[in-house]
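Hi there, hope your week has been kind to you so far. Do you reckon you could talk me through the fold, stretch by stretch? I've dropped the whole record in just underneath, so have a look:
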Amino acid sequence: MLLDEAVYQSLPESKKALYLHQWLQGLPQVISDTPKAELKDKQKLLVGQLQAQLNAALGPPLRTALAQAFVTLYSMGDTFSLHDTIGKCCDIIRAREDVGVSSTNKLTCIECLGALFEHHGRMAGSLFLETMQLFLKALKVQEYRAEILNAMGCVVVGLGTSSSSVQKEIYKSIRTGLGDKSMLVRSAAAKCGIQLAKCSTFLYSQELDAISNSCLKALEGSNYEVRCSVAAFLGTLVSLTQKPLPPSLKGKLKLPSLEEALLILSNGFIRGASMFMKAGGADLLKTGTASREVRVGITQGYTTFLAEMGGAWAEKHLPSLISHVLDLAYHTRTTSTHIDAVYSRKCVSFILRFLCGKLLSESAQLIAAKHLCSLVCQRVAAVQGAESPVDPQGQSPSTFSSTSSSSSAAPEKATTILQHLLICSILEVSALVCTLNTAALPLVADENAVDGTGGVASKKAPPLLEALGVVLLHHSRGARLAGAWCLRCVGVALPSQLSRLLDFCLGLMRGSPGAVYGSAYGMAALMGTVRQSELGMPSAKAKELYQVALDLIHLSEDSENHTASRVQSGWSLLSAYISMGPTYVRAQVPALLALWKNFFPHSMKQLKEEQSKESLNSLTFLLEQRTGVLSAIVSFLRFCGDLVTPEIAKRLLLPLESALAMLSGFPALVKVHGVQLKASGTLLKLRLYQAFSLMSPAIFEGCLNTLLKELVMEFTLADNLANTTTSLLRSMCHPDDSILLGSWLEETDQQEVEEQLQPNSAAGSGALEHDPSCLYFHPFEGTRPPGPLPLGVAVIDAAIVLFGKAFPAVTVKHRQQLLGHFEDCIRQAKSARQQAIQINIFTAFLVALKNLVEVKSVLGQPELLSKAYGLIAGSAFPMEGSAFPMEGSAFPMEGSAFPMEGSAFPMEGSAFPMEGSAFPMEGSAFPMEGSAIFSESGEKTYQEFLLSELRRLQRLELLAQKFEHKASKLDAWNTGKDQPLIRTDDIDQANLAEVMALEKQHDTFNSELAAQEARLSQLSVIANELRDLKYSKADAIDSRIESIGQSLASLKQLSADRNARINDAIAKQQKLDSLRLEFGKKAATFNNWMDNTIDDLHDQFSCSTIADVEKLQAQFEVFKSGELQNASTQYTEVANLVTEMAALGSTDNPYTALTAEYIYEKWCSILDQVPKRSDTYLDELNKQQRHEQLRIVFAEKANMVGAYIENKSSALADLSMNGKGASMEDQLKALKDFQAELLANQPQIEEAEGANQAIEGALIFDNPHTIYSMEGIRSSWAQLLTAAGRAINETENQILIRDSKGLSEDQIREYRASFSHFDKDNSGKLDKNEFRACLLSLSYKLGSDPTDDPVFEKIWQDLNPTDAVITFEQFLNFMTKEMVDRDTAEQVMNSFKVLAGDKPYITADTLKRELPADQAEYCIKRMAQYTGPGAVDGALDYQSFSSALYGQSEL
């Protein structure tokens, strides 16, 4: 219990915290298990030790453990020192930090005070106000705010309403904390607010608006933890407004109604914190919308509110709750853009799923589904009837009446907004259908409408089909797709309704031309259920749907109306039909191949002619058609792969190659016809990429290069101005790395709404309308509908997947070119676009590497590996602030041979004369000024000379300026370049990746140095030209060039030295990396062996024989001589690797968490346990030898006693049968002598009992030396004694019966034999059935029905009216009584002999004369003919008749 101070002080500082944590962590349990008296004796010392820890520097885990220890101690022990502990904590918090009290100490005391007041607040009430004042004062320090707010919440929990005097101050602190910049403080403030709200009514009455506004502000820019805490606080507040007030406050406080309470949440969802600004009328309508963080937080607030109110309350208010939640999606502020509408719908669906899926019972869920269907029909009817419930701001008066104004909303606007309400409603119905399963049948079953007289007037349409009929006809694509998905859910839940639902969709399609789109989607979704339904689809219905699809496809070619809808509907139906599988598609494969081929040009010439002649509308329609074809091909490849033979694959490649060729010229088409083509072209790309992804790269090897070009352009955003990123990065990363990308959301209940807040992730923006093919492609999983990503993201994802699949088929040279192109793409981009391109390229490369592994291939040569490593590590990308420009940069560096923009120097090829010009230079043969020869021609020559001289001077000036500029650039570049080259610490301290990066940087520097040397050569050329032009400062120029040359030479030497150091470091790091990797592999294997060995050495074993122990010893000797020796060799190898790494200056290892110290300690533990294990086996052997001796002793005694009992049992059986003819008196004497002999041998039984006790004391449970157990011996001995006593008693009783009844001993033996024959269980008693069988054997006439035999029942009642069995004595009494009343055979025979006149036979006439008529007739019928001596005609044998008649009661 107490901390061992000596041990604690002897520990190194690095282990003290762990020791202290283990002590504090286990202390509560130790205190709970300690007796009260012992705890009382040690409590004072323990309190002192715990209080001493208040002054220690404890981290958060230790602080929590210390607080819990205090709480447990004062809960289980005395509280005499509670005030002292609280006082010490307050003193430490109050103390200044310059007197030795750190902020860590104060945080410890704050947490301890919170825990103490939470559990013992009532006993520390006198210190309550002082502590709270101290907390409020300490709140001014930012560092303590979160902990103090948590502690305040604990104080409120502990004191409850007793904290009313400071609740206002706590409330102010909470509001301040909710607005704090620190997320920890916001979260702590919200948690404190939850506790305060439970005991303070003013928080959800007078201050509800203010605190709600603070909560909404806290949600702005919040993280996940803050959103959860604030949502719980806000939801709790709103729920408290709807719960009954305490009796003392009823009538004194007015709480908001349900509508007003929900208005707080809804306005926060729509407008955020701006809803509480002091504005009215039109000013309020101008306020902004809520941010996504606020909407997600409010969404969670709704779920908290509903959870607090409970399922029973929700069922009571179900209609108003559903209408209110749906109205959140029926507002212009929440659906201003498509992406906002998608996010808002997800929030609304999340609330509805919580309400209907988690809170409602099954019956209530069915009611909710029907209400949603009814609501859909009502809202659509209201909008179509120009009675829109939406105001200009999109508000529903039922929910947002506080801000509604004039009702002049445009029907078109209302219809557009209505689609989101319809989508949310129908998707929730879909989820409910999945949950209810077969219980959802009433939603689609026909209902009878009752007329006024109570009769059936007509059949009422099922509620769900009525709603789907409305939704599938709606103009919104999203609503139609939601309705189609609902049909798929019904088809899965109720497969027996599939044909009926298909007929319903066909009826819609044929009933209205505008229903083609929606009904086709519905049928496609229903066909998507066939794959998972055991019932399948009738072949006739499948053929009908196939024909409908073909009709729509062919009609769309000629129809002028609804062309786009028909072509999309037809191809969607065909794709869905193919998705049902080979069973339905096999017969149509030839027709399908021909159909697909006809929709693509057969040559490049046809393609060019087609693109040059088509208008925008024609091209759009053409793209729609070919997208449909590709969608069908994708469906065929995905679901009918068994049908794809090499020949079919070759034929499928023709339309795919044609589509790829069309995409190659697509940018030109966009330039001609505008961006309207982009959406159709992007969808075509998506389907094309999906189709290629389902084929082997070997099939499309011929167009691989063209395809790769398109793919790389796609995910490097070459033709995409938006910074679109892929959604695949998280799935491609290692699980540990993906946590940084938000994969932890998958483990939370709020994943569906939290995804929309994750950066660089499109996971939260999925919606059905992005890709209708999800209706039949998407596997059916749970209640959540599929969420196809936006088209821009989906096509990039598809391009990356296809790139990864094609990459292994690319040559090494081409791979290197691709990686180089990736580097260039990243360098040339800036800011957010660069990041987007990096994410896409990185993900594509990861997918490629994954596919390389799957096909068991490698990346390529070392140069390619280095380039790939640089791409991944980012070392090839220019970093901000880098001193060295990157190799291969597309931009000229400082000192480049290319002049900067705005340079005054002429370039080569400029209009200025360069060296070798035709103009005369100084020293030419032309006359100079002052020449004596002047003529007209001379004048002309002189003018030419002046002109040439002017040009020379201008050239000199320009060259001098150019020289100065270039020389200055070279000097500027040279300045400071030696410092990085001289530096060695960066190389010495770098790991392999960093050294490789340094090498690339140095290679870049060498490239720049070579460029500077080239510039020096250019500078020398300029100097030579200046010298040739007689430049007056030629010597200074030469000195300048020499100085620059020396600087460059010095840098070159320094560069060579640094290059050598880098190469040495690379070699060293590569060697070290190899050692680390080898250590990681060997250490992991060796550690795994050690773990198993330690488990084996500590494993408990159970032996029952000496052979078992000897077998274990033999196995252990084999282990020591073989496996342990091998392990010793492995340990030596691991230790040598550690030595080599240490020699290279490093002992850390990024490849494994195992350390040399850990391996050494575990190895020593094994070596220590081996001899102990041997000793354990030896002890077990000695134990088994002792056990064996005990077994032998017991076996000797048990065998003797067991045989004796068996012999005596047989002897007793012989005696019981009357001693083989002896008299009963002799039998009785023999039995008594037998009993005496048994009692004389009782000591032998006791000896065996003693031996058995020794065995049981040694816990021996088996004994191969004997078949007898002590339990069996005891039982047999007791049975023998009992049987002997019973035999004596029975014999004595038989003697009494014999004497009293006059029976002979033979008769008694005969009765005994009969009784024993029917006593099957040898119990000495007969039950009813046994007794009845015995009577029947004795020829008693009984009834034929054993269950209803009054004769037998009378005998039984007379014999034994109370018991269920009879004893032999009762049986003997019964038989004795019967004999008194019956004639014996001899008596009957003598009677017949008298009547026959002593003759051995009798005649019929004699019988008729001497006996009554009925008796005479009876005897005549039953007597046999007499055939003995002296027989006469008609002689009858009365002797055999008498014998047979013996025992019948009638005579």
Q: What stands out?
A: The chain is about 65% helix and 0% strand. The radius of gyration is 52 Å.
